[in-house]
Design brief:
five-stranded mixed β-sheet; alpha/beta; 489 residues; single chain
């Protein structure tokens, strides 16, 4: 049926589990049709909102279209859409930010209520009625398993050669019935290539031919190059000390320009052959696969630029042999991450002198995107590394502060902090020694003296000396920025 007819099957108040992860594999037409339906209902004075659950961020024609008509009452677990972000921060949309590995479990446990409708893009339907996944997997298996009704967008733009790239695992369960997830190497396959869905649950099939939303990566600049160089030097040192093999350990890289630049620099570093166990395949990871630096990559989705997408489509036969796309409850599974000993590289908004990291909130209150999978990997990886330029807003904000304004990753889960100024290895250091190293190696010179002054005065006047803080001014830098638009005194 048409997208408009399919949208009429979604009632006010429905909880919708939608496909989509970083602009890949999201439904392309039904969300827009649903937004039009909601706009008409609102003009008539009728309330109409839905719960919007996905794998992660999607695209403007999904997140943005529904947010623009005030059609979402609760969004989870991760978003990056500017309209959605504005609605959340204005208090007009509820938002629950979850670890990506926790979403499927939380929905199975019923904490968010029933999955009324699964709206899932697929690349095709087999003769046996199984569903061929498209360019992301995310939480689709859970939505299809639990939904009362299923709407499928069958997107003929998605290349048929995707068939066989996916590994959909049907062995998960809730306690006390859990079993080990038997992934011993990044490329291990433990599932099946297709989704299972009882045909009687499918209430609509909508044919589409629309491309995924591509990602725009900023050119690799001097700052990101210096961050990458510090990290490569550190990994080289770890290999020389015998703490890492020459093949390193499976790489995890968050989404973003800095992480993309770091991956690009791995090609010339002499490591390999490497593997990746991560959430998304970005342009630079395709380049590493193409060069042979990475032999196998496991993820749940693609996140590619126009050029990266063209390369992926042109060489899909080869990439299908070396890329595995899984459900995000497996790509981000703590048990697997811990077993493989991943090397986690994620971006951050700010870190404090003791090693706590804020990766989600600007000035303590405003959500940026969400925690995504960084917490899954930070807590469980062999090495947890957080990367950022040392300043933002042309130097008006220091990303190294006395105390973070929101804590996503405590000092217990942060091993390494890297800025263009340098790298601080915090392993084995007590809090005051961590502070000294972070200030010396990661803080921008414009802020270094002020940080040291804070530490010195805290050591004299704080009520205790283990983790000295002056609580009256620990968040003073953030307050100063809110008043004057500059953290500098």
């Amino acid at each position: 049926m048409s997208a408009d007819d399919a949208a009429r099957l979604i009632p006010h108040g429905a909880h919708i589990g939608m496909s989509g992860f970083t602009g890949a594999g999201h439904p392309k037409e039904v969300p827009a049709a649903l937004a039009r339906r909601i706009a008409v209902a609102r003009e008539a004075g009728d309330p109409f909102t839905v719960g919007l659950w996905t794998g992660a961020s999607t695209a403007p024609e999904l997140d943005g279209a529904l947010a623009a008509v005030d059609g979402v009452d609760l969004r989870m677990p991760y978003q990056s859409d500017p309209i959605t972000r504005a609605k959340i921060n204005a208090g007009q949309m509820d938002y629950v930010d979850l670890h990506l590995s926790h979403v499927a479990q939380a929905v199975w446990e019923g904490f968010f209520g029933p999955v009324d409708v699964a709206l899932v893009e697929v690349a095709g339907i087999t003769a046996d009625g199984d569903l061929i996944p498209s360019s992301s997997v995310g939480n689709n298996k859970t939505w299809l398993d639990l939904a009362d009704r299923v709407i499928l967008e069958v997107n003929s733009w998605q290349p048929p050669e995707l068939d066989g790239m996916h590994d959909i695992y049907y062995g998960t369960a809730l306690p006390p019935n859990r079993r080990p997830v038997q992934i011993l190497q990044a490329g291990d396959r433990i599932g099946v290539p297709h989704y299972h869905c009882p045909p009687e649950k499918v209430v609509a099939v909508v044919a589409t031919h629309e491309p995924d939303r591509t990602t725009t990566f900023a050119p690799v600049d001097e700052t990101s190059t210096r961050i990458a160089e510090h990290l490569i030097d550190f990994l080289t040192h770890e290999v020389e000390r015998g703490r890492l093999p020459r093949t390193l350990l499976p790489i995890q890289s968050g989404v973003g320009n800095v992480a993309n630049a770091v991956l690009a620099n791995l090609d010339a570093a002499g490591f390999g052959p490497l593997t990746a166990y991560t959430e998304v395949i970005q342009d630079s990871m395709l380049a590493l696969l193409r060069s042979g630096t990475i032999s196998t990559a496991s993820a749940t989705a693609l996140s590619l630029s126009d050029a990266g997408l063209a390369d992926f489509l042109d060489n899909l036969g080869e990439y299908r042999r070396r890329i595995v796309l899984r459900s995000q409850e497996i790509s981000n599974h703590p048990e697997v991450i811990r077993r493989l000993g991943c090397l986690a590289m994620n971006g951050m908004i700010e870190a404090d002198i003791y090693g706590n990291v804020n990766s989600t909130h600007v000035m303590g209150s405003a959500i940026q995107n969400g925690i995504g999978g960084s917490g899954d990997f930070a807590r469980n990886s062999y090495l947890s590394m957080f990367l950022s330029p040392s300043t933002a807003k042309r130097g008006a904000i220091s990303t190294i502060v006395p105390m973070v304004s929101h804590v996503d990753h405590t000092e217990h889960d942060v091993h390494v902090i890297v800025t263009e100024q340098g790298l601080a290895d915090l392993r084995g250091l007590a809090p005051r020694r961590r502070a000294a190293r972070v200030i010396e190696r990661c803080a921008h010179p414009d802020y270094r003296d002020a940080l040291q002054d804070y530490v010195d005065r805290a050591a004299r006047h704080a009520p205790a000396r283990h983790t000295p803080h002056l609580l009256d001014e620990a968040l003073g830098w953030h307050g100063r920025y809110l008043r004057t638009s500059d953290m500098r005194a």
